[in-house]
Every structure is written in C-alpha cells, then in structure tokens.
Amino acid sequence: MTDAKMPLRAKVATSVSRTAAALSRAAGRGDGSVIGGWIGLKIDPDLLAHLSTGRAIALVSGTNGKTTTTRLTAAAVGVLGRVATNSFGANMPTGHTSALAKAGSTPYAVLEVDEHYLAQVLEATEPHVVALLNLSRDQLDRAKEVAMMAQLWRAALVQHPDVRVVANADDPMVVWAATPPADPARGHFPPHVSWFSAGQRWHDDSWVCPECGSTIARKNDQWWCTGCALRRPEPQWTVEDDGVLDPTGAWHKIQLQLPGKVNLGNAATALAVAAEFGVRPVDAVSRLGTVTSVAGRYAQVDRDGRNIRLLLAKNPASWLEAFDMADEAPTLLSINARDPDGLDTSWLFDVDFAPLRGRQVLITGDRAYDLAVRLDVNGVPFQHVRTFDDAIRAVPPGRLEVIANYTAFQDIRAELDRVN
Ligand SMILES: [Zn+2]
After folding, report:
1. Long-range contacts at 368-375 (CB < 8 A, ≥ 24 apart)
2. Which pathway does this chain act in (predicted)?
C-alpha cells in the first residue's frame, strides 16, 4: 500500500516505528528493527498487514539456512525492482513490520520468518509464495517437537490455498507439511508446490513418518515411507556439480561468494522462489554472486597472517553443514550455553565430529569442557585454548576456520571488531 492510501493510524504507526528504529540505531542499540516494529504494532496492531498490502511478498522459513536464502532470494527478485527485506535476521513480526516501514513503498518483499511464526505471518502478509527449507531440532530446551512444527505449517497452508509453495523434496517433514490432503467439500485444494532438492545431511529428526508412524527408508537421494504413500517427490530444481538445473532442464553455473554445497542448495531455492515471480534463472544467477557475508556469517578477517573465517552453527543439522563448508584447515570450535543458545548441551552427542579428524582442532568457549568430552568420545584430538588470541597464536599462518554457536559467534565477532 502506498503511504497515501494507508489508514491514518497505520501512517502514524509507520512513522513512529521508523523514528524509534532510527533512535535505537543512534543510541548504538543494534539496528533498531525489533524496537521500531514493536512500537509500530502497539499503535496499529494491523500494521504488518497494512504495510504488506500492494506488495508481492515471498516468505522464507525453516530451521536452518533461512537468513542466507532470504538474502539470495532478495538478490534474485531484485531483477524485477526494489525489494524490502529483513536483512538483519529479525525474523518475527516486529522485525517484518520494521523492515517494511523502513523500506517505504516497494513492489516486492522477501521476508525471513521464524518457523514458529509462519502461520501468523502468512495471515498478516498474504504472500505470493512461501519457501519451506527444512525442519530439524533446534535448542532442545525450548523447541517444539519437529513433527508438531510440521503440523502447524500444514494447518497454516490449508488456510491459505492460494499461496504458492516452494519446498525441499529431501526433507520428509517438509514434504508432509507442504502436501495437506485436499477436501474440496470445504474448499481445500492441495497447494501448488514447486519442489527443490537441497539435500538433507541430518536425518535424525525424520526417521518416523509424520503421516502413519512407520519407518522412513532411504537409498541414495530417495526416501519413502515403508507404511504409506509418502515419498520423495520429483524435484524441479536440483543442484548438479557447481550449478543448478531448472525445470526446463537448463543448467546454470552458480558462482557464489558463500562456501559449501549447502549454499548451492540455498541458491537453487532462491532461483525457484524468484521464478514464482517470473524471474528467469538466467537473469538472476549473476546477482547471487553479489551476496557476501550474511549478518557476519562467512565473514573473513585477516589478522596476524591468519585468514579467519566465521561459520555460525546453532543446532545439530547446522554443525554438519558447517563441517561441509569448512576447508581442511585448522579449526576452532567455540560453544556457549547462554540463554539464546539453549542451556542444554547434550545435543553435542547428536553431532558426529568425525569429519574433523585429521585437522588441527582447537576448542574454547564457556562450555569447552562439554565439547572436550564429546570430541574425546568421538576420537577427535583437540587442544583447549582460553582466548581467541591464544587460538590465533596456536595455528600456523593461513586459513583458520571458526565454527561457533550463537553467543560464542557474537563474542568472537565483537573481539575481531575491536581490533579491526
Ligand atoms: Zn507413512
């Protein structure tokens, strides 16, 4: 909706929201997107809906990869015109409200959505397309069961039969969520789904069929339920070598500034979402290469002859992805268990650290000793360091990969910022 057509309350709320965000930034309190959105929604509870009207919107949700995929998708959709996006990862309605208010009138928006809020944000924004990436366990002491989340997504999609869905064919929970049964008598039809294959390294949350409770069997890329008809759909978008195959069978070379096969999967997803707006992959691929570090993730910093690269890993699935992205180089692991990380570190035993064997491994962080026990059991030699500086001195010049969970990642970023 353009400013002129918005109700007065929404106009005031938008303006106050922008001001509050600017004040918060000026005071050095982050980017202000949460406080700005929070105040705007207090004044006009329907502000997110008002700000969404007249924009073609894509939502991106899932446990992992949503910040990066949102950035790549915004870049791809940018072929068509200006795109509003919550690029700082503020992925709840306050963050969406603030991002749209700050962007002003744009024809497009690409919003990262926390998986718990998908139903609410679908309702408020009436998007054109929603991308469903994956579902796996997150912080153990607060996350809803994965199957329950799939159920919530499925129920939300039933309420929005017109939304186009772009979904990961490799994740049984996502496939089940994206394919609610049709009930024509009640006006429910299956959603239009475009399937992509982004791989699934982490299988431990999808051994049991969400439909019938039987075992999920797997062979090569395929998976199927041993008790009912649920099985992997044929994807229209797939990663092949260092490129993406589109639904016409055309192959596009992808040159990203982001590491790992995981990010090629994210690029395939971004192209699939952009295609729902009419963007041709051939026009979008070069833009994907403009995305560099995402909220500090993958950032590279040179210090004392070491090229330090930061990888964030916040749950078991993303640890496996980080091992895939990291070069065969000295690697520092840092684990905290503060409130934003989740207080329970028993998930360390869900992750197989064996891929790190043969690399120089250093550990640090509040819960380095929990990590030490895990690595010992896993047969991965390591060295404990007290500080990040000690870690740098302990490795030879060249690449140092740093894999850290949430607050540990923030600590290391802050330390690097102080020096640079
Ligand atoms: Zn089944």
Report:
1. 368/334, 368/335, 370/335, 370/337, 370/345, 371/333, 371/335, 371/345, 374/348, 374/349
2. Cell wall biogenesis; peptidoglycan biosynthesis
215 Cα to the center of ligand 1, angstroms: 7
Q: Among all chains, which residue has been given the structure tokens 């064919």?
A: 169
**Cβ atoms < 10 Å from Cβ of 268:** 31
Assess contact for 420 and 330: CB atoms under 8 A.
no
pLDDT in tens, 129-186: 999 999 988 765 555 588 899 999 999 999 998 999 999 999 999 999 999 887 777 7
Query: How far lies 279's CA from each of 73, 78, 129, 249, 316, in Å?
Result: 11, 9, 13, 16, 34
* 402 marked among binding-site residues: no
CB 34 within 8 A of CB 94: yes
CA-to-CA distance for 236 and 276, rounded, in angstroms? 13
Radius of gyration of the chain from Cα atoms?
Answer: 22
How far apart are the CA of 230 and the centre of ligand 1, in A? 6
